[in-house]
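Thread: quick sanity check before group meeting

JM: Hey all, I'm pulling together slides for Thursday and realized we never actually wrote out the predicted structure for the chain we discussed last week. Dropping the sequence here so it's in one place. If anyone has concerns about the input, flag it before I start.
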Amino acid sequence: QVQLVESGGGSVQAGGSLRLSCAASGRAHLISCWGWFRQTPGKEREGIATIYAGGSFPEYSDPVKGRFAISFDSAKNTVLLQMSSLQPDDTAMYYCAAKSTTRCDFNSGSYNLWGQGTQVTVPA
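JM (edit): ok, ran it. Output follows.
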């Protein structure tokens, strides 16, 4: 059994930065792909960043490209999301996700492991 525990959300002024962390416990060696998703009320969960276990081939959605950075700390089985130049449109619940299949993508339905979510708020 693998559990994902997120931390690092909060409220920040526009233009500011936050770093989200997602730590895996249990049989984390089975994870091959990590992802970060976000969701606002009434909208579908949106994939924003993925990375392969080991830290290779990070990918970003267009809205966050150039502002967010995903990385993986193999020693701690932790995936990080460094968010910079935050804007009010980035306000959402952010979720860490993981899966054991080999291909990373932004399809939330393909991920079988999810964190509890952490709120990020950027006031207008």
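AS: nice. The two ends are 40 Å apart (CA to CA). Residues 48 and 64 are 7 Å apart (CA to CA).
JM: adding both to the slides.
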